[in-house]
Amino acid sequence: MPASSPLIPIPSVATEDPPPLRPERPLPMDCCDSGCDPCVHDLYAEEMEHYEALLAAWRARNPGREPG
After folding, report:
1. Which has the closest alpha carbon to 55: 19, 18, 24?
2. Which residues are CB-neighbours of 4 under 8 A, at least 6 positions away?
3. What would you report as the CA-atom Rg of the chain, rounded to the nearest whole angstrom?
4. What global pTM score does this model have?
5. S-S: 40 plus which of 7, 19, 26, 64, CB 3.0-4.6 Å?
6. Average pLDDT over residues 30-58
7. What is the mean pLDDT of the chain?
8. Backbone angles phi, psi at 44, to 5 degrees
9. Comparing C-alpha atoms, which of 12, 40, 13 is closest to residue 26?
10. Do residues 15 and 62 make contact, with C-beta atoms less than 8 angstroms apart?
11. Per residue in 24-40, is it b (16+ CB within 10 Å) or e — as a string?
12. Residue 33: left if φ>0, alpha if ψ -120 to 50, beta else—which one?
């Protein structure tokens, strides 16, 4: 009789494909109001666009799941 191999746990879908993390919104005091280019608010807007694209792709791969 062959020796049985130990069972290896199969990771759940949640650990294999976690949802993307939403970027942190800058605080009002993070902006110096001196017209920086780019401003922290501009950077946040770009990060949110990237996050939304990642989230849409994640949802397509994980139908029925919600982040959080």
Report:
1. 19
2. none
3. 21
4. 0.71
5. 26
6. 95
7. 86
8. -65, -40
9. 40
10. no
11. eeeeeeeeeeeeeeebe
12. left
